[in-house]
Design goal:
Layout (H helix, E strand, L loop, with lengths): L1 E5 L3 E3 L4 E8 L9 E8 L6 E7 L5 E3 L7 E6 L4 E6 L8 E9 L13 E2 L3 E6 L1
Parallel strand pairs: 2-11
Antiparallel strand pairs: 1-3, 3-8, 4-5, 4-9, 5-6, 7-8, 9-10, 9-11
Length: about 130
């Protein structure tokens, strides 16, 4: 199983970015049998859950600090998940990771919930 994130960049505060996560190697169970979560981590701190989407029914969960600003979506035909980020703040600066999470997911996932991780993509928001 492989997850590859992309889309991280340097952006000014108030700007937008769209992160992508491409999953491969999921045969049985397949992509639709899992949730995909986005997490972020800054140096010296633990990896925190940002949002997740259940690929079987599209249920989404968001951390309070991104509600109304970030949107998670998926394209099951392409085994891809996206994180659209708007109104970015300097405190959103982090390495962003996607991860595979077994269903069901009813709350913001923690790093312990994930079974596979991508390598991360850096997001830097300048003031």
């Amino acid at each position: 199983v492989q997850l590859v994130e992309s889309g991280g960049d340097l952006v000014q505060a108030g700007g937008s970015l769209r992160l992508s996560c491409a999953a491969s190697g999921l045969t049985f169970p397949g992509f639709e049998d899992y949730a995909i979560g986005w997490f972020r981590q800054v140096p010296g701190k633990g990896r925190e859950g940002v949002a997740s989407i259940s690929n079987n029914d599209g249920t989404t969960v968001y951390a309070d600090f991104v509600k109304g600003r970030f949107t998670i979506s998926s394209d099951n035909s392409q085994n891809m998940v996206f994180l659209q980020m708007h109104s970015l703040k300097p405190e959103d600066t982090a390495a962003y990771y996607c991860a595979i999470i077994p269903l069901p997911v009813w709350e913001v996932p923690t790093y312990r919930d994930a079974v596979y991780w991508g390598q991360g993509t850096p997001v830097t928001v300048s003031a």
